[in-house]
Amino acid sequence: MHFKVRHTTEYRYSAPVSFAPHTLRLTPRGGNLKGLHQELTVEPEPVSRNAGVDAFGNTVTQVAFDGMSDRLMIESRFEVETAAPPSLDGIDLPLLPWPDAPDDVRDYLSMQPEDETVQIFARELAEECNGATLGFLQHLNTTLYTRTDRKIREEGAAQTAAHTLSVGRGACRDLAVLFIAACRSLNIPARFVSGYQAHAETADGRRYLHAWPEAYLPGGGWRGFDPTHGLMVTDGHVAICAAPEQAETMPVEGGFYGQDITSTLRFEVEIETSR
């Protein structure tokens, strides 16, 4: 699938401010991409710009500023071709719960046990699938899609997994966190992904940054699931960042210096797709 994306983020301040260094996580990632062309515009113009790769394999751009401004605008424009990942047919996965994970994916397991209600929820779904890993992941994906009232929430971090499970309501990032917690409770490494999806389902057609989980499958690599839409991730998604926790995937991270300053945020996402 061919994606053409424009994502604009604009901050306005009640008076001129100076800016701390910012980290931008807006570059598409993943082995299923080809022909990527991106333009990343920042105003005011940074005095330095450095691109690199973080500990989780994401392309990050570090920018630093001089002087003061009452506005900060960041715009990412890119075009890219996506391809569906290889089939999982023939991959032999252990029954659930899994034994200890390999060292290179231990960062994607919880440091502490998940909430008991989440553990029970995950175990019950696994038992309904006779412990089959892929069956569990598909069942979990469908269950969150059918049992959860999915709502857009523009502000705030993700809810806890236990809260989303309790209230049965949440945004895409909340469902991703619950999916990840259920996987980790059974020792399946899982991570949080932010990016873009091909199709809008909002009443006004407005586009938003999307979030979904990925689970690590030995022999199959990282595989995405989208509980917001009840489907597996194939070529209809473009990831820009993946990390163990949501906080590590923020597309724009930084701050400003000023006293008694108020700020407003405006964003716009435009996505065109074709085959």
Order of helices and strands: EEEEEEHHEHEHEEEEEEEE
Q: Could you tell me the number of beta strands? A: 16
Please describe the biggest sheet, giving its number of strands, its sense, and whether it closes into a barrel. 5 strands, antiparallel
% residues in beta strands: 35-45%
Average pLDDT taken over every residue: 94
Q: Which CATH first-tier class of the largest domain would you pick? A: Alpha Beta
Which oligomeric state applies? single chain
Q: How many whole angstroms does the radius of gyration measure?
A: 20 Å
Overall SS class: alpha+beta
Indicate the low-confidence ranges by residue numbers.
none
- The 3D shape can be described as globular
How large is the count of helical segments?
Answer: 4
Number of domains: 2
Sum this structure up briefly.
The chain is α+β, with helices and mostly antiparallel strands. Helices cover 18% and strands 40% of the residues.
Model description:
The protein is of the alpha+beta class. The protein folds into two domains: 2-83 and 250-274, Immunoglobulin-like; 103-233, C8orf32 fold. The protein has helices at residues 116-128, 133-147, 161-167, 172-185; strands spanning 2-19, 22-24, 33-43, 48-53, 59-64, 69-82, 149-150, 169-170, 190-197, 210-217, 221-226, 231-232, 237-243, 252-253, 256-257, 263-274. The strands form four sheets. Strands 1, 3, 6, 15 and 16 form a five-stranded antiparallel sheet that branches. A five-stranded antiparallel sheet has the order 12-11-10-9-13, covered by helices on one side. Helix 3 (161-167) links the parallel strand 7 (149-150) and strand 8. Helix 1 packs across helix 2, helix 1 (116-128) packs across helix 4 and helix 3 crosses helix 4 (172-185). The longest helix has 15 residues, at 133-147. The protein is globular, with a radius of gyration of 20 Å.
